[in-house]
């Protein structure tokens, strides 16, 4: 059984910075998350290349001394935006907001994130993996686990800073969501 711990980065420094690091509260959130995960069999910590995710991952990994830590573009900040042919699948009240998503963050029909999830959730070496990423990516990955319609990720918001979700495999090899967006450790 392969367990995936899925986490949104801790609170970022407020302001207009394009790639902010963690705020003081975010650093404490990451330490609390690290204490919570210290008892788990996590062997690998993968994180978005963004500063807030990298700092969260490194802070958590300080509590996981045998874990390998690595950045991957597969966890970068993205937003699933429907193609013109699929826009009608999204609620009309979301259309204006979706149209404002910066082009650099757009993932048309979620193809990139679906491919990323398939790669990241493939059976690998023994031991659990921790994925530190961004709110909309967590929402999309959870939607993938649930087999929900494309627009369902929007109804999973907000994914909280340092929120923990756990995806495990059942005895039939099916992915199951055993915890979603928990902040009990904070």
UniProtKB/TrEMBL annotation:
State the Gene3D superfamilies in the record.
Answer: Phosphoglycerate mutase-like
Q: Which CDD domains match?
A: HP_PGM_like (cd07067)
Top-level EC class, please? hydrolase
The regions listed as transmembrane in this protein's record are: none
Please report the name of this protein according to its UniProt entry. Answer: Histidine phosphatase family protein
Organism, scientific name: Leifsonia stereocauli
Record key words, sorted: Hydrolase
The UniProt entry, under InterPro entries, shows:
His_Pase_superF_clade-1, His_PPase_superfam, Mito_Ser/Thr_phosphatase
What EC number is given for this enzyme?
Answer: 3.1.3.-
